[in-house]
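From the shared-data thread, chain only:
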Amino acid sequence: MTDAPYTIAHDGPVATITLNRPEKRNALSAEFWDDFPSVIEDIDRSGDTRAIVLASTGPHFTAGIDLAAFGNTERQDLGAARGLDFMQVVDRMQRTFTVLEEARVPVIAAIQGGCIGAGVDMATACDIRLCTADAFFTIYEIEIGMTADVGTFPRILNHLPEGVVREMAYTGRRMGAEEAERRGLVNRVTADAETCLAAAQELAREIAKRAPLAVHGCKRAITYGRDHSTADALEWIRLWNASMLQQSELMEAMRAKQTRTPGQFAALPPMRRLSD
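Structure, as tokens:
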């Protein structure tokens, strides 16, 4: 369906989610914001997927929020009631990208063309970003008279100097692929969308060869260490390995390395629903 907000494809342990509204520059519709968190959670829940790739169709990664899709949600309520309603909507939208950060498995963004507005929020919530030579990033919200609120500032400051973020936020200027790589916002620049997606999927497959529990531990430890003091992060990793380190996984990883054969690791346990 050309009007579906995204498609999902599974290739063994790698899941690829592709934004699929090229005629709208992959603007993020109301349906996307409603459904995307549960899609990520469902993929993560089974334990079968070991890495997720986010990609898109058409010339741009995403134009950000589809403002037209939210036109019919405007309320006539005044005062605190309207403010509370707005806060609840933004809270749900923020959650849409927080699920990428909270997923047990790494998420890799394959970005081509424009990564605009909420697209920056999405990309910075991913673990790794690859982009095409024609890619650009812009905190576009200032151009429409608002402050970015879905997740840009808490996350992009982990990747770019504060002064650069302020310049982008205040002016809406575009950061091109070369600058994004030089400053550390993206891991790698590729020639075009096809090679970008191929590189992202190859990296996902490489990650998927490793012990899933160790990869999950790395993701949690990196995020925790980023947001906490060194002392707190050291204590956290002591507790994690004391609780989670598996001797069988260590032995299998060493066997796989010595024999140069794929490791046979246990999948992450399925996440159980309270009703199960």
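The chain is about 45% helix and 15% strand.
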